[in-house]
Automatic annotation (TrEMBL):
Subcellular location field: Membrane
Keyword entries, A-Z: G-protein coupled receptor, Membrane, Olfaction, Receptor, Sensory transduction, Transducer, Transmembrane, Transmembrane helix
Gene (name only): LOC115526268
Coiled coil: none
A Pfam family this chain is assigned to: 7tm_4
Record protein name field: Olfactory receptor 52M1-like
Top-level taxon of origin: Eukaryota
Main location as per UniProt: membrane
Domain G-protein coupled receptors family 1 profile: 43-294
Length: 314
């Protein structure tokens, strides 16, 4: 009599563990995470509302900023509410289809985030290095095309993830050692060889992330070269302050995302709680910082927000 096949191609639910080893701190970890989420939602919604209401802000920089804000809202909302339910309510169960849906949104919109960082770097390069041709180079049509390309890229390269995982048999534990449904955490639960699937995921993430990071770095290198050539020292310091804050946000995103990717490939000795905590950072910190750096520090948005609140701008 042949042995019974105990594998299941699609389990009903998975169990999210949270941060292994820090379960006793989940309630406290949830407090700063919730605060960051509230700031991210309020900040990004404010940016969208201000740019929509003020026609004077209908410029390339603010169009890209709106695209980034929408991405931040989707990315943070697809992870934080579910994560807080885990931390505060002990809701570990997540349906299989819900898990795959969350995974798709996380990975595709993280890729879009990277793409919009690159688009904004290109916009700043054109604005600073070719100011007289800024609006003629970055027309509304070209901005739209760039946005569509970023979205299609994110969807096209990461749509296979949930499809591939749906085809796998699962005969091991249903417990995902993570705070959300990350592809690499879920694929480990399959009871077949997933080497090709894992290599595809890591290769796509590494190539896209590396290309975006390199092109963004090149753009800011040209920007800095132009800034140092400005005749006015005051103008140079002002431009450096703006670019410096932008670069800091981008560095946080790429350093934490890169750490997570390369830990899956090479970091076998990295403690699980360290890896998962940092993996949460590249989903939480950019949506939290982007409205502050790109919004609050932008004078035009400051003025319009204060005007809406009926506060006199000095």
């Amino acid at each position: 009599m042949p042995p019974l096949n105990t594998s299941r191609p699609s389990p009903i639910t998975f169990l999210l563990m949270g941060i292994p080893g820090l379960e006793h701190l989940h309630v406290w970890i949830g407090i700063p995470f919730c605060s960051m989420y509230v700031v991210a939602v309020v900040g990004n919604v404010t940016i969208l509302a201000v740019v929509k209401a003020e026609r004077s802000l209908h410029e390339p920089m603010f169009f890209f900023l709106c695209m980034l804000s929408v991405t931040d809202l989707v990315l943070s909302t697809s992870t934080l509410p579910r994560m807080l339910c885990l931390f505060w309510l002990g809701a570990h169960d997540i349906a299989f289809d819900a898990c795959l849906t969350q995974m798709f949104f996380i990975h595709s919109f993280t890729t879009m985030e990277s793409g919009f960082f690159l688009a904004m770097a290109i916009d700043r390069y054109v604005a600073i290095c070719h100011p007289l041709h800024h609006t003629t180079i970055l027309t509304h049509a070209r901005i739209t095309i760039m946005g569509i390309i970023v979205v299609i890229r994110g969807v096209a390269f990461f749509s296979p993830h949930p499809i591939l995982l749906r085809q796998l048999p699962y005969c091991r534990t249903r417990t995902i050692a993570h705070t959300y449904c990350e592809f690499m955490a879920v694929v480990k639960l399959a009871c077949v060889d997933t080497g090709a699937t894992t290599r595809y995921s890591l290769s796509v993430a590494s190539i896209i992330g590396s290309c975006d990071a390199i092109l963004t770095a090149v753009s800011y290198a040209f920007i800095l070269r132009s800034v140092f050539r400005l005749p006015s020292r005051e103008a140079s310091f002002k431009a450096l302050g703006t670019c410096g804050s932008h670069v800091c946000v981008i560095l946080v995103f790429y350093s934490t995302a890169g750490f997570s990717i390369f830990t899956h490939r090479f970091g076998k000795n990295v403690p699980a709680h360290v890896h998962i905590f940092i993996a949460n950072m590249y989903l939480l910190v950019p949506p939290f910082l982007n409205p502050i750096v790109y919004g609050v520090r932008t004078k035009k948005i400051q003025e319009h927000v204060l005007r809406a609140l009926k506060v006199k701008v000095v």
